[in-house]
Amino acid sequence: MSALLEIREASKAFGGVQAVTRVSLEAQKGEILSVIGPNGAGKTTVLNMISGFYHPDSGRIVLEGRDVTDLAPSRIAELGIARTFQNIALFRGMTVLDNLLLGRHVHMKTGVLSAFAYWGLAQKEEVAHRKRVEDIIDFLRIQDLRRRPTGSLAYGLQKRVELGRALALDPKILLLDEPMGGCNHEEKEDMARFILDVNQEWGVTVILIEHDMGVVMDISDRVTVLDMGQKIAEGTPDEVRANPRVIKAYLGETKTDLPGGSRG
Amino acid sequence: MLDLLYAVAVAPFRDMAGAPAFLIEVLIGGVFAGLMYSLVALGFVLIFKASGVFNFAQGVMVLFAALTLVGLLERGVPVLVALALTTVVMVALAFAIERLVLRPLVNQAHIILFMATIGLNFFLEGFGEMLWGANVKKLDIGIPDRSFIVRGVQINQLELTAAATAAVLVTVLAVFFQRTRIGRALRAVADDHEAALSIGVPLRTIWVVVWSVAGVVAIVAGLMWGAKSGVQFSLSLIALKALPVLILGGFESVPGAIVGGLIIGVGEKLGEVYWGPLVGGAIENWFAYVLALAFLLARPQGLFGEKIIERV
After folding, report:
1. Which of A44, A51, A102 to mutate against chain B (most B CBs within 10 Å)?
2. Chain B residue with Cα closest to A149
3. What dihedral do alpha carbons B109, B112, B113, B118 form, nearest 10°?
4. Bridge partners for A26 per DSSP
5. Residue A148: closest CA among chain B residues belongs to which residue?
6. Quick one: pLDDT at residue A82?
7. How many beta-carbon pairs under 8 angstroms link A with B?
8. Closest Cα of chain B to A53: distance in Å?
9. Which of A14, B185, B196, B203 has the smallest count of CB within 10 Å of its CB?
């Protein structure tokens, strides 16, 4: 089976700092792939390279057999890769509804001329997009927040809206950068549920960066472990949990179980 | 004391009522000046909305557009061709600015980009002068600066044309922003660059579009001001008048730029004509700034500005 997304030996340096060194990674269609590792391991850099925010110094990124290494972020989004951000990047001055509608951007067509020439067409298109957005709003259970500006929402809800905007793109691949970071227990459970549903019911492939090992081990099909910019392990959650190199990377020399590994 | 009160609060209104035709003329003059301020302010708003950059060079862009147009007309190019060529020049300028100024400075602090536009300001001023010379030029686009009388009110044909053009331009821009895909994308970019990129908005295209539109707005503004008072370097100074307009209307609001411009245009003309003699004239020179100051104290986001909501 050929991979949906492939990273081949990608490297990226910032000034003198080698953030990622010859990392290869494959995401199969329909799976949840988690990328874990200690702080500074290069996880977000990998995500930024996939989404086109950074371009690797060497190596290739291939989506469905097509080389997308040097494409701009907007082109990557058009090809069906949506993402969220570690620090939340929402349109803070706009409502939840507007944020999600903007998520439909790549599917919208109304240009300057048609907006003038035939208002009806624009209206019809608007209705179709609105329908899709309402589905997502129902799915994420944020019905009563529709008209609220996103900047005024609680942190956990902002994360949820950001997920919603990414979903509005109808992505093939969803890149999530610490979707549970800074969330409380209940919010984490909700988010884990949403990710599983998106994956199983909508068939979206998910690449997830997350620090909460309990969640990662629970919901991932496969886990890739990075340390100091290099891949040190890969496999099912159980395989990774038992891997001595992983244990060493997380805990130094001691032979203890992974943090949170006994949970779930 | 009572005399003063009378002179300030009663006499001007008595004068207005006494000569309504003249009052209407003053109002029309104010509306005309106001629309011109609005046009310059519009250029600012467009760029500010899309990139969060306060474009210090907007005034010089107006001058540059007018200089280019006059330069072409002087060389015997027909009006319509000259207009088309000037548009091409302004769009080319937008491409150059994106490539040479904005792209290398992407993700820099706003103040850096602001400084870059100050540099752009000096460059365009010098470049325009080098290309077309520094003399005051007459801009004649074939609309006669002639007046006709309607029910005792003198109406200037040039001013009327300018007002109509501005109104059309504003309508087009409003539809562009509210209804089109690219207009929406533009608002997204204004709000958050990273988020806009992640939903598939091409930042560079948006910047080129915005600077091009600002360039076209500059042409219209340059055309109207130039036809009225000649093309000269003081044209770039009207950019300063756009600042109070922006404070009044809100930096991010297209309707705000229009209404703000009208309030200032009409306000300063009325002040000058009816209250000017009390303080020895020149109200026109400071009225806008005092009004802006009052707004800064009372309503800093402007009449139409988006309320700044920040969760702490």
Report:
1. A102
2. B309
3. 160
4. A6
5. B309
6. 95
7. 95
8. 8
9. A14
With beta carbons less than 8 A apart as the criterion, state whether A50 and A7 touch.
Answer: yes
Q: Using CB atoms within 10 Å of the CB of residue B78, give its burial: 0 to 12 exposed, 13 to 18 middle, 19+ buried.
A: exposed
| The pLDDT of residue B312 | 47
A90 at the B interface (CB within 8 A)? yes
Query: Residue with structure tokens 């001001």?
Result: B225
Q: How far apart are CA A251 and CA B4, in angstroms?
A: 84
Decide if A106 touches B, using CB distance below 8 A: yes
**A109 interfacial to chain B (CB closer than 8 Å):** yes
| Containing structural domain, residue B88 | 20-298
Assess B180–A contact: CB distance below 8 Å, yes or no. yes
Low-confidence spans in chain A with pLDDT less than 70:
1, 109-122, 253-264
**Contact between B195 and A165 using a beta-carbon 8 Å cutoff:** yes
Examine residue B177 and state whether it is found in any structural domain, yes or no: yes
> Which residue in B179, B197, B310 is closest to A74 by CB distance?
B197
% pLDDT > 70, chain B? 95
Q: What is the CATH number of the domain that holds B29?
A: 1.10.3470
B194 CA: distance to closest CA in chain A (Å) = 7
Report the 3 state secondary structure along A173-228: EEEEECCCCCCCHHHHHHHHHHHHHHHHHCCCEEEEECCCHHHHHHHCCEEEEEEC
Q: Say yes or no to pLDDT of B174 above 80.
A: no
Q: Please report the pLDDT score of residue A9 as a whole number.
A: 94
* Cβ neighbours for A93, distance < 8 A, ≥ 6 positions apart: A149, A151, B191, B306, B309
CB contact under 8 A, B198 and A82: yes
Is A94's Cβ below 8 Å from some Cβ in B? yes
Number of domains in chain B: 1
Amino acid A112: pLDDT: 53
Superfamily classification of domain A1-80+171-264: P-loop containing nucleotide triphosphate hydrolases (3.40.50.300)
Q: Does B312 map to a domain?
A: no
pLDDT, one tens digit per residue, over B115-165 is: 998 999 899 888 888 887 777 777 776 666 677 777 777 777 777 887 788
- Among candidates B199, B173, B174, B196, which has minimal Cα distance to B186? B196
Lowest mean pLDDT among A214-218, B25-29, B295-299: B295-299
Interface of A with B in 12-71 (CB under 8 A): 51, 53
Q: What is the ipTM of this complex?
A: 0.85
Condensed to tens digits (0 to 9), the pLDDT of residues B215-268 reads 988 888 888 878 777 777 777 777 777 888 888 877 777 778 888 888 888 988
Indicate whether B13 belongs to any domain: no
